[in-house]
Backbone:
């Protein structure tokens, strides 16, 4: 039986390696330089430094590792449909070439991260703008305002670092989406080769599991449309285009109510028939029957007064009791 933990380990190892490399190769130096320039009152130079934040060097330096992790993710997905035996998968047997979606994974990840870095730059720029404005105001209000100036800009490096830390979240998201889609792609490819026309979704059920994934756990869908959708997603070079054409399910109360009432055909039409359902999704695809019937939650309408956390606790308790 497939285990979600193997997939999660792959994702976390990729995210951690890329984040530490980016901090060492780019982020720390940029934050230090921008803070030094800001503290010296050279705000234009500080802002130019922030614009040098980039994931490109990290992706280039770790291209081989990303390709290796992508291949492992695909093989892991295939192994979910060979009773966990990687040697019996299509790719390991040499019965298929490495799919294009796997070979393009590093380039696709870079495209997504370079879009994300713009938001990181904007956050850092906002910190600099606010510090510059405070310095200007202090200079105007205080006679001999240098003492005031030092008080205003103290902690600038810490504030910049906090802004730039969001780059780590972007890396986590990119790593998860890449490994998750590739694992689903491998599983679906192997299922199709096996002649298995359907698959089942297996989610980790704990207090972290979102309302969407709790509802998708144990659901059964057709292989063919899910395979075509996953391959299309992996070949999409513009992640923003994918986000607009195939948005995540809503986790609002109304969104969850709508999701619960949708038919399998409606879910498939929305592309909500396989993980990932959100960034950080821990779901995988397994053969029909691998998800124990006792773990599938039988949903009833949530009481209006329940908070999201209370609803999660009640539903997880129902599945694990």
Residues:
């Amino acid at each position: 039986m497939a285990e979600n933990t193997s997939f999660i380990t792959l994702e976390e190892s990729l995210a951690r390696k890329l984040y530490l490399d980016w901090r060492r190769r780019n982020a720390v130096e940029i934050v230090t330089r921008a803070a030094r320039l800001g503290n010296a009152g050279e705000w234009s130079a500080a802002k130019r430094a922030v614009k040098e934040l980039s994931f490109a060097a990290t992706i280039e330096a770790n291209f081989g590792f990303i390709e290796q992790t992508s291949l492992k993710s695909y093989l892991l997905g295939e192994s979910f449909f060979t009773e966990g035996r990687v040697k019996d998968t299509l790719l390991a047997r040499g019965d298929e070439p490495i799919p294009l979606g796997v070979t393009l994974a590093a380039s696709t990840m870079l495209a997504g991260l370079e879009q994300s870095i713009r938001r990181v730059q904007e956050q850092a720029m906002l910190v600099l703008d606010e510090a510059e404005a405070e310095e200007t105001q202090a200079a105007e209000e205080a006679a001999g305002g240098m003492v005031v100036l030092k008080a205003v800009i103290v902690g600038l490096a810490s504030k910049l670092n906090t802004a730039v830390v969001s780059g780590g979240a972007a890396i986590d998201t990119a790593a998860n989406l890449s490994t998750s889609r590739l694992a689903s792609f491998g599983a679906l490819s192997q299922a199709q080769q096996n002649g298995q026309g359907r698959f089942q979704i297996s989610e980790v059920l704990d207090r972290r599991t979102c309302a969407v994934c709790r509802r998708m756990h144990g659901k059964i869908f057709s292989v063919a449309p899910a395979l075509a959708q996953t391959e299309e997603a992996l070949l999409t070079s513009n992640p923003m285009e994918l986000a607009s054409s195939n948005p995540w399910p809503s986790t609002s109360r109304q969104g969850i109510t709508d999701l619960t009432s949708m038919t399998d055909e409606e879910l498939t039409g929305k592309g909500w028939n396989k993980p990932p359902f959100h960034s950080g999704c821990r779901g995988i695809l397994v053969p029909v029957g691998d998800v124990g019937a006792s773990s599938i939650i039988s949903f009833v309408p949530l009481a209006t007064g329940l908070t999201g956390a209370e609803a999660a606790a009640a539903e997880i308790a129902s599945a694990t009791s």
